[in-house]
Amino acid sequence: MTTVNFDFRTPAPDGTLVPASGSLRLTPTERRSIAGAAVLPVSFQVNLVDGAASVTLAPTDTSWAWRIDEIISGAPGRTIYAAVPDAESVPYTDLIPLNPGTLAPVAAPSAAWAVMLAETDTRLSAGVITPDPDDTGFFLIGA
Fold first, then answer.
1. Is 134 a residue whose pLDDT tops 60?
2. How far, CA to CA in Å, does 54 sit from each of 57, 90, 109, 114?
């Protein structure tokens, strides 16, 4: 079993970081068998105390992962699927995010602005910019 240490902070107006409040919902993605018992993929919830929680989880293998739903006050909800190593303890931020469909590690995403800039550069080199016919103040980029 592996202890996963969660620590969530939010920015305060004075620039400091304060403990977040909220909870986590943890769910195994697959039913599995351990010592003749069927372990069902049932979720459980853990409340953060001063922004932190320590949870003991079964290490995963290539056939299943942990789904972790972050329910943090004031923050958008977030769900990740993660591989949990067979270790004594690990910080949550060190878990490897997985693609839920394949359970393969997720590639580091490109920054949204970089993707948008690349698309804009491609459109500009392939076409022209014309005023929007609806006169909304936007421009159309096209070939």
1. no
2. 10, 10, 28, 36
pLDDT band at 60 (very low <50, low <70, confident <90, very high): very high
The Cβ of residue 141 has, within 10 Å, a number of other Cβ atoms equal to: 15
| Cβ neighbours, 10 Å, residue 98 | 21
Q: In Å, what is the CA distance from 106 to each residue of 81, 83, 111, 135, 141?
A: 10, 11, 14, 42, 32
Q: How far apart are CA 51 and CA 72, in angstroms?
A: 9
Long-range contacts made by residues 47-51, C-beta under 8 angstroms, separation at least 24?
47/22, 47/23, 48/6, 48/8, 48/19, 48/20, 48/21, 48/22, 48/23, 48/24, 48/72, 50/19, 51/7, 51/8, 51/9, 51/18, 51/19, 51/20, 51/21
Distances (CA, A) of 137 to 124, 127, 128: 18, 19, 16
pTM of the full structure: 0.73
Query: How is residue 1 written in tokens?
Result: 């079993």
